[in-house]
Design a protein that fits this description.
Blueprint lengths: L16 E2 L18 E11 L5 E12 L13 E5 L15 H4 L12 E5 L23 H15 L7 E5 L1 H12 L7 E4 L8 H15 L15 H12 L3 H7 L3 H16 L4 H9 L17 E6 L11 H5 L6 E6 L14 H14 L3
Parallel strand pairs: 1-9, 4-5, 4-6, 6-7, 7-8, 8-9
Antiparallel strand pairs: 2-3, 3-5
Helix pairs in contact: 2-3, 4-5, 4-8, 5-7
Length: 366
């Protein structure tokens, strides 16, 4: 394996905090990759960390490409890609992510890689409260989500190795956990828009505000509502607030009237498919995220990418720069805010950071 980090004289890994201007090619407007294949994997009697058991946990997933094994039977081209809070695998099948990465000649060309995009527990086509259990649905956390993904990969797909584990936002946080809980299962890790530390400070505040808007609404009825409670709208407004950056929002909403029109339209769209219990569970799932104590257990080379205009993961805290030094083969990149960054949403704009992904794959090739 090629060297991923230069060593300091003491042999300790060094931190690379890269601040650079990134040029971006135009987005691919037409899909040039295979149509994803969609299936369900059902786990019988899945036991959550809370002790609750679901007789059948359904994990919906998408795949592109085919797995390839070496002479020893080890799968060498499988890539697990995990989505953010409230999203699904389908939210990454778009021109600015899949169109950049999965196309012929792309960094994750679907003709070369076996790409796996699961819907996390409580999201998309996977089992979730709105399927019928409502507030009786098991209270899952990120550790449960990672365990279900591991069972999908190993038992559902029969894989014994991953070339790369990567994710955006919530999926990025789960990428850190994958590296800690299954340290020899992958060649490389790439979390996009995350911090390797417990949810706290402003990040906890906006989540609590959104959850409280639902929980404290009498119309929520303890999760047994007949129509969506008004508090769901406030929660969706909080998600809209934290997902972009001030420069982009100002360009989109240059006047008071324009701001109201754009904001109202965004929330109307979100409310068409939103469910209060689903969103409450999705936000609450981050309560058990705490990779800090086990960062030294990550053995695979890891490249974390954040952007300087991320409201959720503010660079001023220097948490990423501090904690990455504890990862044996860790590297951190903080992209400067610029015309092509999208605040927290930069994680899906692959043109901004795909060169770093290519570098990671090249550095970990066999």
């Amino acid at each position: 394996m090629k060297h991923w980090l230069h060593a300091s004289p003491s042999g300790a890994p060094r931190l690379f905090a890269v601040l650079m201007i990134v040029s971006i090619a135009p987005a691919i407007l037409l899909a040039q990759y295979p149509t994803p294949q969609q299936r369900d994997f059902v786990i019988k009697n899945f036991r959550f960390t809370s002790g609750e058991v679901l007789p059948e946990l359904r994990i919906h997933y998408r795949t592109l490409g085919k797995p390839e094994r070496d002479s020893q039977g080890v799968v060498r081209n499988a890539v697990l890609i995990m989505h953010g809070t409230g999203g699904s695998g389908s939210s990454l099948i778009n021109p600015i992510f899949a169109g950049e990465l999965f196309r012929p000649g792309g960094v994750l060309d679907a003709e070369k890689y076996f790409l796996i995009l699961p819907d996390g527990i409580g999201h998309g086509g996977s089992s979730k409260p709105s399927d019928g259990l409502r507030a009786r649905f098991p209270h899952y956390g990120y550790l449960d989500m990672v365990e279900a993904q591991y069972q999908l990969v190993t038992q559902g797909l029969g894989l014994n190795h991953l070339r790369l584990v990567m994710g955006t936002s919530m999926g990025a946080m789960q990428t850190w956990l994958w590296g800690e809980r299954h340290p020899d299962f992958m060649d490389a890790l790439m979390p996009l828009a995350s911090l390797p530390a417990q949810i706290s400070g402003r990040n906890r505040v906006w989540r609590r505000a959104a959850m409280d808007a639902i929980r404290l609404d009498p119309a929520w009825k303890g999760g047994h509502y007949d129509t969506q409670p008004p508090g769901l709208r406030t929660a969706e407004q909080m998600l809209y607030l934290v997902g972009s950056n001030p420069m982009l929002r100002q360009r989109e909403m240059p006047t008071l009237a324009a701001s109201d029109v754009v904001f109202d339209a965004a929330i109307v769209t979100a409310m068409k498919t939103a469910d209060a219990n689903d969103l409450l569970y999705q936000l609450d799932a981050s309560r058990d995220y705490d990779p800090g104590p086990d960062l030294e257990h990550i053995r695979a080379p890891l490249l974390a990418v954040n952007s300087a205009d991320d409201f959720i993961n503010p660079p001023e805290l220097k948490i990423l720069e501090r904690e990455i030094q504890r990862v044996p083969h860790g590297r951190a990149v903080v992209l400067p805010a610029g015309p092509e960054t999208r605040g927290h949403g930069t994680h899906t704009v692959a043109a901004v950071w795909k060169n770093f992904l290519q570098e990671l794959l090249s550095a970990t090739s066999r």
